[in-house]
Amino acid sequence: AMRASILIVALLAAVAFAAPFADVAVRGKVTSNEPRVNSLKGLTKEKLAKLFKSKLGGSATECKICIDFMNEAVQYLIEVIANGGVIGGCQGLCAAALKNRSQILDVVCDLLCTVVGIEEFEKLLSDADPDPVWLCEEVKACDYSDSDSANITSLSVSPQKGHPGTKFTFDISYDLISFTGIGSVGVVVFGPGAAADGGSLLMYPQPGTYSGQFQLSTKPDQYNTWAPGPYEFQIAVCEGDCGCTHDHNKVLTMQSLNFTITARN
Question: Do residues 51 and 62 make contact, with C-beta atoms less than 8 angstroms apart?
């Protein structure tokens, strides 16, 4: 089985698999030591034309471009739709929302909208939970499978306890037994004085053994006190987005461990 580090492409928003977060405002972040790369940077209309010259789907590059686009553009599109929309179909909507912000966003928008048509595109964007991964699955830019399988094989934390301000490192290994298209790793931390989340997207990984690492800073701030006590770290490997409740997005495997914030003497 191959070894590879998980590809971090985006921090996830609220992670739905952790029930304790129903009443907790998530303010902190669990981060990775791998940089986030925005696929829209340096993109040109010519490059887009080559990438999207055939039908969408089947390409990690197309999927990544779509997700980065949705992360940047969804709110602008929703605002235009909420204000009554515009005439002119896909081209009119995309131009009204994005042309003055970025020509590339405008072009990507028109390409994705045209696949499903303006009515379906607006319907998807108007959903109560317009998750970027789900949206890209629905517009055929990201492949998915409803029969993915995974297993977390190891999970550890170092150190196991420390004062507020300690940086904790979490190491994970997991097997992707069968996998198609887009997936994710989601993490949440909760305890008496803080709540944090984070994660990564898995861009078309092949079946095999993977490893990754996350860091958590417990330096107190205006949101998290990191008060002394027991904390729980949860991690999940998911089909689609761990933070999404739509079809084709679900938790495949999950584990948790405890660590402790100790009082200063």
Answer: yes
